[in-house]
């Protein structure tokens, strides 16, 4: 069964690559990146053999705990999990979850992140192979740690996706997701605030961090050899027991989720018979044109589709992280809080760009009704604007109230306006050119295939880069206004003009491109992601 | 067409508002008057005189090494109920996708009432209503919302959308589930809401890929009545199916397609040539041998 499932994964991967060039490009970029990380990490780990065991202990515990947190955080927030082998597809076969699970585990590890982590963990064993007890401890701890990484990511994404799909917990889960991202970001930032100390202080900090992390679930497994190195045999045994218990608990939790997808693979969540109120409020928000119809439909999707709710969480995380970190910092920088709302626009371009991919094959409706490409673009821009506008207003009012710096308002507004408008424009254009693989509606918003994560990153880089280029004149004027304050008002004006120009250009270019390439776009978004 | 009983009486009377006789201003054509009870005769063509409702010329499409459709010619005269039959993988869906502007052909042209689908898509698409097979709908909308969405995309006036969708939902038996999300619909209900979406703008040509699949017999009869009334009102229907009896009882013209080519086409009687459509079809496509001897292991129960 194990060999069968792993073989299935490999076959699916190979067939998927054969179907899409972009997927191959994404995979190769991901693999090169992973290879670089692995080579660097292995070199570092082998070099550690020439340092003291105590230093090695502190450093490895901290670094490997961060890797473990990273698996969970990146799966939930950025990359999703690789659902190439969808457990729901086994629903008709007489296979219990118990028999399927080991195969699913190994198949899940087959992939760039899994293989890279496995190699780095082998490096950990190499660095600890200094005497027999240490080597034994590392050999015991390594598989436990690796399993913790993988299982944490799986159970966390499964739990979140089920909550997002259920009507009752949907909003709660979206908020929890945003909070989770915020906590991760705040912690990282707070740690960053302590950097720049003397090397001696850094050494002390490292030791303290290792002690703390070593007692968190993320560090239990990794601190087993570290405790042995310090001669703390009791601590080592305690951590070993805790780590093993954690893996067992996560294994059982994951089995529950597998069982559920084996027995009810078809539901989009929430069960049948969902009634929606016949509200026409949304319809009246937008003009009675085809573009208005697209906007209305998109607004309803923002509310009803977990994939959109998940990206809404992503929009809000970055500014909240910055504001909270600065508030917690005794030497806070007012300016960072004041300018934090601008970060809302960070994902705007990629959200608009991937909107068309989210439609999947349902996009045929737009094509067969003869919808003009520009109307498609405008509709999506309108709905995204309506989602972003209240969030921006609340954020700006909040940060201005916190800092009381009314004088910065024109600068903040200028940057926010130009970034938002050009982000929408750039997204409209790029979305018409390039469609990324997206999970189908109703699937877990975290389900991504090999290469999907890399494609998302490339899309994010491209849209953000272009948006910044459009914003350059405004940015220059805002910088200039430090010396000549009246330039801030000029910046606001320029922001409005360039933003509107970028938006119109993006919509027009994207629309024309869609008019010419509708069938090809349909083929691209219909291709099984 | 036999006169029909109560539910359809409502339908026939009501259909005057969305049969092809009255539609939104059509490009290049004169709006025509609705006839009494939706039975107005065929109306002046919108395209060049005598242009077929659907004309396919030399259509070809290959997926990698597989030639799905090869040099396919087909004419569907206005006012006909045209059945496209063929075995699995014959290229029916590929052909219909290319005819409706959803899939770009490698070669060849498709025209709807004289308007080229690929060089003049706006006009061609305004004239046809499409129900594809195997593509999603915007299924996070309720049935009513989806209908209104398609209507608004096609710039149907709001008042017409309201009255037509109420009528369509009622006729197709979806009125009670109109506020439910389409994702929660059964396969048959999804087909029906898809058909309603194809009809909302009162098209001149209906292209339906497997419209009866998964539809229960009662709804199937309703759909048949709708289609017959529609053709009587001057509209044209092209539908694909592999149920020969259904095509035989419903269509007046047939094309048999296999391996991406048209093997036979014409009126039902021309194609049948004295046999039943089923026999003729098997004769054209070729029967696979060994149906009774194969799979012998299935006969002794393994339980």
From TrEMBL, chain A:
The chain crosses the membrane at residues 21-47, 59-81, 102-126, 132-152, 172-192, 233-254, 308-328, 334-358, 378-400, 412-434, 455-480, 486-507. It comes from Microlunatus kandeliicorticis. The keyword Repeat does not apply. Keywords: Membrane, Transmembrane, Transmembrane helix. It comes from the Bacteria. This is ABC-2 type transport system permease protein. The lineage of its organism: Bacteria, Bacillati, Actinomycetota, Actinomycetes, Propionibacteriales.
